[in-house]
Structures are given as structure tokens and as C-alpha cells.
From TrEMBL:
Its cofactor is pyridoxal 5'-phosphate. Its EC number is 1.4.4.2. The modification N6-(pyridoxal phosphate)lysine is found at residue 713. This is Glycine dehydrogenase (decarboxylating). GO terms for biological process: glycine decarboxylation via glycine cleavage system. The gene is gcvP.
Amino acid sequence: MTPQQDPRPSPSLAELERGVPFADRHVGPRPDGLATMLGALGLSSLDELAHAALPDAIRDDEPVATSLPEPVSETDMLTELRGIAARNTLTVPMIGLGYSGTRTPSVIRRNVLENPAWYTAYTPYQPEISQGRLEALLAFQTTVSDLTGLPVAGASLLDEATAAAEAMTLLRRAGKSTSPRFVVDADTLPQTIEVLRTRAEPLGIELEVTDLSGGLPEGEMFGLLVSYPGASGRVADPSSLIADAHGRGALVAVAADLLALTLLTPPGELGADAAVGTTQRFGVPLGFGGPHAAYLSVGERHARQLPGRLVGMSRDADGNPALRLALQTREQHIRREKATSNICTAQVLLAVVAACYAVYHGPEGLAAIARRTHRMAAVLAAGLRSGGVEIVHDRFFDTVVARVPGRADAVVAAAHDAGIALRPISSDEVGISTSEITTTAHLRTVWSAFGVDVADVDALDAATADALPPELGRTSEYLTHPTFHDHRSETSLMRWLRRLADADLALDRTMIPLGSCTMKLNAAAEMEPITWPEFANLHPFAPEADTAGSREMISQLEGWLADLTGYHAVSLQPNAGSQGELAGLLAIAAYHRANGDTGRDVCLIPASAHGTNAASAVMAGLRVVVVGTDPRGNVDLDDLRAQISEHGERLAALMITYPSTHGVYEATVREVCGAVHDAGGQVYVDGANLNALVGVARPGAFGGDVSHLNLHKTFCIPHGGGGPGVGPVAVAEHLAPFLPGRTPVAEGGVGAVSAARYGSPGVLPISWAYVRMMGVEGMRRATLTAVAAANYVARRLGDHYPVLYSGVDGSVAHECILDLRRITKDTGVTIDDVAKRLTDYGLHAPTMSFPVAGTLMVEPTESEDIVEIDRFVDAMIGIKGEIDRVAAGEWPVEDNPLRGAPHTVACLVDKWDHPYPRELAAYPTDGTPGVHDRKVWPPVRRIDGAHGDRNLVCSCPPVEAYGG
């Protein structure tokens, strides 16, 4: 038949112009693959699956979101977002306040920030296939510990303000003082003080912000926070304050500028117990406030009190050095309400950027950048003085405060008209901060704004002394490890980064089927805008008129998320899921207080809940009471009613994850919510599993009062090896006044939960782009495809591994739990053995032992096609066959392909004395398509975690350590 005779109607010109819908690129299974999955379930369509899997009581048969526009193509989305970005006005940022202009070296931007090998990686809980990012994080820790003079540094925290809050609670735990008082230097960053107030109030900490220039206030205290330099730029010796605090039984944290510490005596040498700060100026874009990797370092005696993650060195099965996350028993899913913090993500991707910046520049390069930054400030101040302008402080690093009585606004306006943003402090004072991007041309522009003319900058420079206190000059060495000296050329750094990436297994190489973590596609079109200068180079305290584009994008995204979840309002300030949880619970507590219900302090949490739930409840000042679950994994209604009856008027909230942490749509969720509401409590619906709800059900419509949403799961912000994350909080109308930052703590509000007004706005274009290109129908399709994939996996593997929980009709939600406990009991083969053996198949392991010990939780997501899903399923079936051979006695429990996994090239070419053939160790399904060409060679064998915890090494070890 010729084209002219083809009876099918031709696509319209408009359809041809739109091209392939983005949803067709995001959703992995092709129509035939989806038909195969649905056929295995006895279904014919996604709508039929929706009716089969979701309870009638919660299901939206038609999407109801109204504010979302029709989806657009990638090209049209980028064009639209370009238009929004153009509404931002970029100036040279000389505002300071903890945020500095910086240059991300192109080799780092291209090979890390824009490289899916780095931004699609997951948290390195499988260390054998995470050695690359662990090595980069070890370089980060070493950078921080060397510069702060404190030997133990974590693998990053969320921002400087939350790092200070974590330090506050660490000092309280670690110290011996019984005083509830925490004293804070008034010259601390204002956003840090605000977050400290938010975090202190529910914990009963008495926060006292005071001027320390005349010494400590009278009385006892458990801790002290001093700033070095201060928010004003002033540099003073804090050693006498530290000694005085120690004399009163208090511990001391110092908020320090990491770049300044290349020139100043480090806090550890001044006697500090802890140091906090940000690594933003180490090559991390401003991003309108985030994401940026914060740091917290401590002395060795406080190492086991450190919140968050810590990379340590251990050894593998062959005795070779190997890296892993140390002290993992502190993780919240284990410690729950006894956790030291609710932090469950870090800022790994940004920490890697900062570490690479330190590696690329080395100690000499960092010191040169610091000297340049300081000289710009010193010469700036000298020029202003030459024109009769008073400079408030004589000793400073990069920030100058100029006094111009009654003229501050005029000066700031004049500088802004010339393209430079300064900081108005009052009508009489202006703050100016220099950075590595400051030039002498910028100095001339600033002088001009003040009405000062400097004829000869070189002569002024020659005549100007440094403004740093000579007695605080740094004398100790730092960054002496070869890593910080061997990669000066771009060629060397590029190859180092490639070597590290090759030591990792990320989403760019294989499916990552982690239950509850939703490792889905992070599309290139979504990622592209985050490095646009209009978004990346925007200072968080830029004038409102300069940020119209970003605020428009943020407002649109907040509205879309509210509609998709059925809530009234959304705040994007929480910069991690843990902070979203805390913000939601603080909103509930503030709401009860506003109603006079000051006695409501009980938070009911199902036994199956995420561990961060319990930790967040304690941080919000609530008392955790556990509610049992029934044999199907649902909330036990009888126990719930009993707990409600027992706690009565003390009930503040119930936290529930939906679908449940067990991967099930609970049919009784409305009944659960109703029982809590009838008792006067509020319902917190954890949004960790929102990937099973978008477009098909809304937590705000089936009983939730508040939810946090993980944008790094459902809405495509990549995990980045363990961060960045964004955890916005969505609330019903009656809780809207209590969203974070809208009402000060002193007025009964919640206060800020992160340093920046919008948390981590630098990555919000990713989620905006995803929603804009998918539309409601596309996201509904994604949700149901994810549910179809999980049920397909459960159906195919059910005969080999018991599926622990399912709904009343036998279906699961977007994830399923494979129960290996009986297998382990009968054969000795553990989930660790299975997880490590999957590496030999070229696959990442599912989530281990959560929410049930001895199980694997599998979430395939909607982005994986049936070929990749079948590859995983076939691998699991192949592993079950190997387990059966162990059970049959063919191989001993202690020496078989599973216990020996993962197998490195080195162990395979060495003398072979195992009862299984080396060919089977290397290629477990030899002859199966897709095995040889997808082979992963791990750099190390199985790691001895206990050895690493007993012998904690958490900075770059000497070269001799690698000698075997």
C-alpha cells in the first residue's frame, strides 16, 4: 500500500511539532513491555491496575489538580524556564553574610556537577561499589579537619545554620553541665541565630544571644558558640572566651570561615571542642541560598557523638584498605527516638565539589585565593578611609563595615545601579564582602558609590598593611596528603575523577532497586538549568527586585505541589526530608499551643515507620508512643484505639507513612485518620512514598493535615550520592500560619528550619521542569507504571522468595519486601551475601533490613524498562539457585559464591582455592545476554565493618596504608 493509500489519519501539524511527549522518555517500559507486566498480573490497563491496587476510599479516578498547565516538550520547557530565569537580575555579589562569589572550575563542573556518574549515585551503604565517592568524601573530611584543626569531621551537613544547631545539641549531650543555657555570639550570622532559636525552643534549651566583645555573661552554661570571623567581618581572638567557658564546665563551638582558616589560627588550636561552617565558597554556586555542604568537626573524644555520616577506613576480605560509612549504628532507622539527630541525608554532591576544589587548588592555591580575597578587602577599606569614610573594624578577613551617617541607602543604590550588590546594615552602615571573584574594577565601582576616587590602586595597595591580627596568623601545615598535591593539571584531575567514578555504581550504569528511596531517572533536560548563571549565581540576600524569576518559579512549584497533594499551602524551606518532618511536627505543636492545648505532647508512630519519624518527634518536643502493626503490615486498629484511649487529651499527632513502609496501600487509612481527628490530634502523612500516589490519590484529601515531600525521590532531584535533598512541607489551611519561617518563634510560630529562605532553591528548577513536562496525566502514568513494575517483580519472584506484605487482594504498592529470614535460618546465607553477590551480576542491591531485619525491599520505579527489570529478577532467581546449592551441601556455608562476593579481578587472577569455579564467581550467569557487557568489577572485596568501627580512621591515611 502506498502512503497515499494509507487509510490511517496523518498526525496533525501541531502533534508533529510537539514531537515525542516527555513522559514517553521518562517512563521506561514501552507499550509491549508494559503489556507484558500487566499481563503477568492478569490486567489489561493501568486504570484497571489502579482499581485493583488502590483502595476505593483514597483513589482519585480522575486527576483533580487544577493549577497545573498542560505538559510541554523539553525544548518548550527550557524556553519557558529561560524566560523565567531572565527575570532575575545578576549583580556582582558583595553582600556576604555567609555566602560568597566563587568559581567552579570547569573541569569540576563538567566532570562532577554535570556528570550522572556522580549525581545519580545513591548513599554509599554498599561500600564495595561506592569507593569513588567515599574517597572524595574522605578528601572533604580531611580538608575540614586540617583547616579547623579538629581531627574528626563528618561527610557534610545541610547548611551552616543547621550544622550550628547540630553542634548545639552535640555539646549538650557531650558535656557534663546540667545548665540549659546556650550562649551565642551576637556577631553570628542572623540566619544561624534564627535556626538556633527554632531548634532550641522545643528542647528546652535557653538560648542567649549576647555581645561577647567584653567577655562572657555571668552564670553557668552548657555551651558557647562564637564566630570567627564574625558576621560583621570582625576578627578577634576567641581563645580567652573558650578558656573561660571551659572553666565554667561548658563546651565551645566556633563558627569559622573555612577559607579564612588558611591564614588564621584554626579553632582546634585555640581550644575549641567543635567547629561549624559552610564550604560554599569552595567552588559551590550560590544558588540563591543552596544547596551547600556544611561542615562539623570535633575532637576525637566527641567522634561518636557526631551527627550524620562519617567516612572511615577499614579493610576488605583480602586485608586491603577499603572505605565505608563508619559508626552506622547511629543511623536513625536503627536508633529511632534514641537517635542523636534526625539527619538522614547530607550534601554529598556539593561536598564532592568542595573537596575537588581543595584537591585542584591544593594548600598553596587555597592560601593564594584567601590572600587575594583579604587583600581586596584591605585595599577596599584603605581606599574608603582615604576618602574620609569611617571603617568600623580594624581587623577583618573579607568583610568591611563602612559608616556613612544617613547615606547607606544611597550608597547601596548607587552600587546596585553600577552592577554590584552591597549589604545595607542600617541607615548609617554598609557591609561590603570580597571574594575570589572580586577585581580591582569592582573596588573602583564601590569607591565610586561612596563618592571616593582612588587615583592609583597599585600605590594604595603597596601602602596598605594586612588587616588580619598578626597574633592569629596560621603557622601549622594543612592538606599535606599527596591527594592535595598530585592533581594540579586538568589532565590529572580529570583522570582522578574518572578513576573515582569507575569505582562506583550509579544509575547511569544500572538499575538501583532501593525500596523507599525511589532511584528514578533524573533527566538531562531537568538538570540543565541548575548551572545557568541566572539561577546558579544568585545571592540569597539579593534585593527582591533582582530575584523575581526565581521567586516566580518557586511560587509556581509550591502551588503545583499543593494541588498534587491536596493541601492548602507548601513551604520549600526544608532542605531535606528530615527537616520537612521536623517542620511539619513543629507546625502541629505550634497549632496546639495557639489553641491553648499546651498539654498535647504525645506522637503516635507505627512500629513500621521510618526511623527519622521518631527522631523528628523527639526534636519537636514530643513524646513517642509506638503503635503496633498487624500481620499484614498495617496499623493495628485495636492498638491504635487503645493508645488513643490511654493518652486522650495528650494526643498531639499520629505519624503515618502512606503507602505504608511495608509497601502496602492500607485500606483503613481514612479510619485511622478519623480516629486521631476525633481525639483532637493531627495526622502527619510521611511523603516518602509519594511516588505511589501522585495523580492517583492525595494525602490532604484522605485525612492528612501535613506531609513532607521528598523532591529527591518523587520529583526527580537526584540523590547525588546522599544529597542534595529537598523536603518541602505541605499543610492544610489551618496549619498554614505555622509553616516554617512565617512567624517568629517568639510570637508562637515555628521559625526557620534552614539557613536560606527557600532552602535549596538552586536545585528546584529540576522539579519544576519535571512537573512542567510530565503534567498530571504523565505523573499519573508514572505512578501506576511504578506500581505495575513492583507487582511484576513480586509476582515473578514470589515463588523464590516470600513477599512479606501485600494488600487484601495480594497486590503491593510501588515496592515489595522479599523475606530471606527462613532462607538464612535454613542455609546460613544472609541478605549481605545476596546483596554482595548482586554486584557480581552488575547490579545494585535493594534496601537491606528495612523496615524488617533480614529482608530486602525492592522498588523498581517507573523509569526502568522491562529488560532491566527482568535482568534484576533473573539475577535474583540465579542467586536463589546458588542458595539451593549451598542448602544441598554442594558448597560450604563459609565458602561459596555468595559468601565470597563481591569478586575483584585481583582475587580471580590470584591463586584459586575455592570449591566453586572462578568462572562462576566472575560471570554468574555465563551465556545470558547482558551479563558480560554489563559486568561490574568492584575495586575491593567485602569490607570488614566492625574493624573500621574499632579502628576509626576518618581522614586521608598516609600513603603507606595502601602498601598492603
